[in-house]
Amino acid sequence: MAYRVDGVHLYADIVNLEDLLNVTMIEGEMCHRRTLRFLNLHYRAVERILANEDAILVDFHNQRLHSVVAKPYDDEAKRIHRAIAIGQMIMDVLARTGEDADHPAAKVRIGIDSGLALAVNNGRRGHREPLFLGEPANHAAKRSGGGKAAGIYLTNNARQKIGLAKVTSEDAAPLTVDEIKTSQNEVNLVSTVDKVVKDWEADLKAHPIGKFEFSAHTPPYAGLDFERLSVAATRRQDAATVYADIDGFTKFVSRNIADDLNAKHVVRALRVLRSELDAVLHTEFKGRKVRFIGDCVHGLLIEGTCANTNEEETISNMVLCAGGMRSSFALALKKLHTAGTNASSLGLQIGFEFGPMTATRLGMKGDLIRCSVSRGVLTAEREQGRCKGAETAIGAEAFKTG
To answer: How confident is the model at residue 131 (pLDDT cuts 50, 70, 90)?
Structure first.
């Protein structure tokens, strides 16, 4: 089932996550334990804000939050003002939710855009996977990922909707203090920073996070059950991680979102192509999907034993897996075309890396979110991002080790 949703998309990137992963020379257990606790602390605080303000939590993927402000339904400018006020509250709260030098406060960069998107829900087995596809989600994500400077960054589209002037560089023009204050005065948020922090502290006291306990999974990753993972049962070992992203999908959505029949073709293409990528990883190469992130698949792959990863075989199979993904993707496009869905404009960007990997679930009890974060995960995502639709990029560690 898919719906058109006119809403404001807010992305929040924790820009100092990579700094936390690099506080030690060696990417050891202490580094990962600090990073996972850091994320868990901040996930809890942000979930509380979004629930209070009736905003839609779409996804938390490592350092990146995606949420949607859909109300009030009849006032786009008011929705944008609400998103700005919520974004500032997230920044203010996360500035106070660090515990100590090992678990610092989060520095946050917010990206916001507004418009029509296609909402799809692919939830299964209690693993909720809501998606919002289209330009506003994509453009908001680009603004939040457009640099390391904290602040709230609007697209020119969103700026003009609330009476602000266009800027030459959207990624270099954060809202001013006065502009943010104007938005805060336009809306009445239920939350206050002090109340959110107080409730967050009370929740931590009542439901402490505990210590992350690491153990290795016995290969292959195809047998890894994410539903059994938690703070006390987190997997950690050397492995390969991959990001496979459908190139050109945002434009594909934009061309087809206005028509009901064409929108169905968008959903069909997404489900078929992502399922093919997942099947290659899981069935043919015994890897494991961590999660779908919009039109992207994030996965893990390992060869060897519980005690020792076979580095060369792992990387070799990851190369073959990338080739298999590309081959199956091309075949799926042909089959879609035969079935009446022309998605020939789409391509596939693949990036992968090798190194110490984690696999766990974070967040509030009853609504835990899959997480795999490490230096290698961030590198694989960057490598994928610099590819064109027919390219695969290999991370430096994978290249050197394999």
So the answer is: confident
Per-residue confidence (pLDDT) for residue 101, from 0 to 100: 59
Residues 36 and 135 reside in one and the same domain: yes
Same-domain pairing of 232 and 84: no
* Structural contact between residues 280 and 328, judged by C-beta atoms closer than 8 angstroms: yes
| 22-31, 232-241, 349-358: the lowest-pLDDT one | 22-31
Phi, psi of 262 (to 5 degrees): -65, -35
Give how far Cα 401 sits from Cα of 16, 180, 240, 281, 394, Å. 28, 48, 11, 21, 11
Domain boundary among 206, 224, 244: 206
The answer to whether residues 12 and 64 touch, using CB atoms and an 8 Å cutoff, is: yes
pLDDT above 80: residue 103: no
Domain identity same for 20 and 142: yes
- Exposure of 66 in the CB half-sphere (CA atoms within 13 A): 23
Residue 291: which domain range?
214-401
Q: Report whether 401 contacts 354 (CB < 8 A).
A: yes
Dist. CA 297–CA 289, nearest whole Å: 7
Q: Compute the distance between CA of residue 107 and CA of residue 63 in angstroms, rounded to an integer.
A: 11
What's the whole-model pTM score?
A: 0.94
DSSP code at position 25: S
Whether 303 and 323 map to the same domain: the answer is yes
The count of other CB atoms within 10 Å of the CB of residue 339 is: 10
Q: Do 361 and 249 fall into the same domain?
A: yes
Say which amino acid occupies 18: E
Q: Which two tokens stand for residue 271?
A: 């489900």
Q: How far apart are CA 392 and CA 77, in angstroms?
A: 41
Residue 11's domain is classified under what CATH number? 3.30.70.1230
Q: Give Cα separations from 329 to 106, 129, 242, 261, 263 (angstroms).
A: 38, 22, 15, 23, 20
- Looking at the fold, whether 182 and 300 belong to one and the same domain comes out as no
pLDDT digits (tens, 9 = 90+) for 43-88: 999 999 999 999 999 989 999 999 999 999 999 999 999 999 999 9
Neighbours of 172 (CB within 10 A): 12
> Is 227 a residue whose pLDDT tops 70?
yes
